[in-house]
Structures are given as structure tokens and as C-alpha cells.
Design goal:
- By secondary structure, the protein is of the alpha/beta class.
- It has two domains: 139 residues, Enolase-like, domain 1; 225 residues, Enolase-like C-terminal domain (TIM Barrel), CATH 3.20.20.
- 33% of the residues lie in helices and 20% in strands.
- It has 14 helices and 13 strands.
- It has a seven-stranded parallel sheet with strand order 5-6-7-8-9-10-11.
- A hairpin with a 4-residue loop joins strand 2 and strand 3.
- Helix 6 runs parallel beside helix 7 and helix 10 runs parallel beside helix 11.
- The longest helix is centred in the first third of the chain and has 19 residues.
- The chain is globular, with a radius of gyration of 20 Å.
């Protein structure tokens, strides 16, 4: 079976509330949706979330990049198996429009197109997308089918009262893991985190995310300030430009370090391992270039004795939520899982299915073919800003 066309949509989705952290704030999200149509009319959907502060991408840049890419040539293969689909996607190269020393420019666009192709062929094969893990030569040993997954909660800010409500809700609703955004109030984070710890309770696994807000020379001081609250992990404590400075502090700190903005792909992963800058990879499908690249990063982490979580971007719609669910329900040893905040965050639900997690952050694996969700046409029309179609056959 061959691909007939790829349609790229630019969508604008309102958020129910501002999502804020040390490096960015969002009241709405502009994302990419890719619709892959096969020769028999089967359609698959994918999504990417360009973030200039992470991979240097913008929505406009992604549209220009795909326009400059020979899509018909790159996606013209005939696929009859998952191995064929993997080979087709691994051979697909986006146009290079600017210097890209970290190899991450275009990751959100690649993610959208790749997920659309995987969804379409999953529907054609009558299998969920997580089945591709079993056919991925570098990552098949990661495969472990799971009937359900469990997501983390998050406290982003909003003042003491809002944080108290958020923390008590997570405790009441039975969450096991919570991430707290820090770095916005230097010198006051210690008392704040201790308050949140009291509201969450002593049993909650509590980790923090600084989003690169700290300086390398204050790293030890900042972590000592937070230590009484018992954080289990510290995510992206310094900006990417200073990430090499983390290596000599790891043993002194005594708390695992996770890389996020400094972990966008293979080049970053190899540098992190070589330099010894982290203990955990934060893998995000859009940031890391799609489902297949994210599998490769998890395999690299495991081979180096590191852990990995599957994260998400603020504003992911149900398409990326479904893709994350497929990935997490098929990959072993995911230490933390983020995403599926749909109904809690989005002002418009794009999929006909509600992907929002349930009590305690628990959610079932998606059993349907492909990603296991369908896009609502009326909702898509309401949020669409632009659409471009690339014919292949």
C-alpha cells in the first residue's frame, strides 16, 4: 500500500488557563496536524507542537520546511509490513533550511508527519501503533504490553491558594507522582516546596522542574534549599548552554538529574552520556522527532544505565495524547509519565474520544487500530488556520 497524500494543518487551540513555568507561559497553543491518506482512502492523523525555546521551531518555519521538502519522493514507497513503514520513515529527510548543530530543527514537523503515517498503516494492518515497537530493530527489547498506564500530576504555580487546591486535589484523587515547577521565585522556593509537600502528603513521589532557570554556580545552594521536601528528581536545573556544568555536581547533589530542553535527539543523548550530565532522559514525542526517534532514545538510555520518562508539551491535543498512550503502554520501565491532560487544559477537544486520565492518573491502553482515536471534523474546522496538501501518488 502506498501513501496518496499528506495534508498539513495549522491549528490554534485555546487553553482553559494559563500554563506557566520559568521559561515560558501559554494561554493558547498553535500546533501542527498532519493527515496521511493512503491509496485506499485510509486516513491517519499525527500532531507536532513546535516550541522555539526548545528546538528552535515555529509553526511558520515548519510550514516552510515541509514546502521545501520533496515529500512525494521521500514518502513514495510501497509498504506491506511494519518493517516497510519503519524503513520508509527512517529514510524520509526534511529539507534543511538553517544550521542545525543539534539535529533537532524539524522535530515537531517530523513527529506530526510520522504519527500520521503510523496511524494510517496501523488502521490498515488492524493493529495499534504500539505494535511497531516489536518490529523496531533497535528498540524491540523495550516492548512490554501493558493494560493500563499511570500519569503524573503537576503543580505549575498560581499563588499559594491555587497551589494548595491543586496539591490537595492530587492527594484526594489518589495520584502517586507529582511534578512541581520551580525557578520562578529564587530564595523562596524552599518554604514553598515544603508547603506543597505537606499538602501532597509524605507518600507522594515529588519531583521538581526548574526549566533551566538556575545558574550553574548556584546549583548546590538551590538544591539544598529544596532538599527538606524530599524531591526524587530535578529536571533541567540549568539552561542548555550551561548543561556541561552539571557533570561535576551530580555526586555532590545526591538527587537524580533529568534533562529536558537539553535532550532533543541523538546528538544531545550521546553528549549527555559522554559528559555524564544526567541520570534520566525526559523524552517527548514532538520534541524528540516522533515515535521512532523516541524509541531509539529510550533504548540508548537503557544501554547507558540511565532511566527515561515520557513527557509532554503544554497544549497537546488528543492526537498526541493518544500517541503518548500508545508509546507508554508498549515500552517497559517508563519511570514517569506525563500527558493526557486534555479536558483539564484544552478549551477545545479535537478528538471524538476523551483521552483525559482518570482517578489516580490511571488510564487504559488504547485497543483500537492505529492511534486508537478519531479527529472530530467540526472541531478541526473551528481550530484550523491553514491547510496545505502534498500529493504523492
Amino acid at each position: 500500500m502506498k501513501i496518496a497524500e499528506i495534508a498539513l494543518y495549522v491549528i490554534r487551540v485555546p487553553l482553559k488557563r494559563e500554563v506557566k513555568h520559568a521559561s515560558a507561559a501559554h494561554r493558547e497553543t498553535r500546533n501542527l496536524l498532519a493527515c496521511c491518506k493512503l491509496a485506499d482512502g485510509t486516513e491517519g492523523w499525527g500532531e507536532g507542537v513546535p516550541r522555539a525555546n526548545v528546538t528552535g521551531e515555529t509553526v511558520e518555519g515548519a510550514v516552510a520546511q515541509l514546502a521545501a521538502t520533496p515529500v512525494a519522493e521521500g514518502l513514495s514507497g510501497d509498504c506491506g509490513s511494519w518493517e516497510d513503514v519503519i524503513a520508509l520513515l527512517e529514510g524520509f529527510q526534511l529539507a534543511r533550511l538553517k544550521p542545525d548543530p543539534r539535529g533537532c530543527y524539524g522535530n515537531a514537523l517530523r513527529c506530526a508527519v510520522e504519527l500520521g503515517v503510523l496511524d494510517a498503516f496501523g488502521k490498515l494492518f488492524g493493529q495499534p501503533v504500539r505494535e511497531v515497537i516489536r518490529h523496531h530493530s533497535a528498540a524491540r527489547d523495550l516492548y512490554r504490553a501493558q493494560a493500563s498506564v499511570r500519569y503524573s500530576g503537576v503543580v505549575t504555580g498560581g499563588g499559594a491558594w491555587g497551589e494548595r487546591i491543586a496539591a490537595l486535589k492530587m492527594r484526594l484523587y489518589g495520584f502517586a507522582h507529582c511534578k512541581v515547577k520551580v525557578g520562578m521565585n529564587p530564595g523562596r522556593e524552599g518554604p514553598r516546596l515544603r508547603r506543597i509537600r505537606r499538602w501532597l502528603g509524605g507518600k507522594m513521589d515529588l519531583r521538581v522542574d526548574a526549566n533551566g532557570a538556575w545558574r550553574a554556580d548556584e546549583l548546590v545552594e538551590r538544591i539544598e534549599e529544596l532538599r527538606p521536601a524530599g524531591p526524587s528528581c530535578i529536571e533541567q536545573p540549568v539552561a542548555h548552554e550551561d548543561v556541561e556544568a552539571l557533570a561535576p555536581f551530580r555526586e555532590r547533589i545526591g538527587v537524580p538529574i533529568m534533562l529536558d530542553e537539553s535532550l532533543t535527539g541523538l546528538i544531545d543523548a550521546e553528549r549527555a552520556i559522554e559528559q555524564g550530565t544526567c541520570d534520566v532522559f525526559n523524552i517527548r514525542l514532538s520534541k524528540c522527532g516522533g515515535f521512532l526517534n523516541s524509541l531509539l532514545l529510550a533504548a540508548i538510555a537503557r544501554g547507558a544505565g540511565l532511566k527515561y520518562q515520557l513527557g509532554c508539551h503544554p497544549g497537546e491535543t488528543g492526537v498526541l495524547s493518544a500517541a503518548g498512550r500508545q508509546w507508554a503502554s508498549g515500552v517497559a520501565d517508563v519511570v514517569y509519565l506525563e500527558g493526557s491532560y486534555d479536558r483539564h487544559v484544552l478549551g477545545e477537544l479535537l478528538t471524538n474520544e476523551d483521552l483525559t486520565f482518570g482517578y489516580g492518573g490511571k488510564a487504559p491502553a488504547l485497543a483500537g487500530p492505529g492511534l486508537g482515536v478519531t479527529v472530530g471534523r467540526a472541531a478541526l474546522k473551528r481550530v484550523s488556520e491553514d491547510r496545505k496538501v502534498y500529493r504523492i501518488h
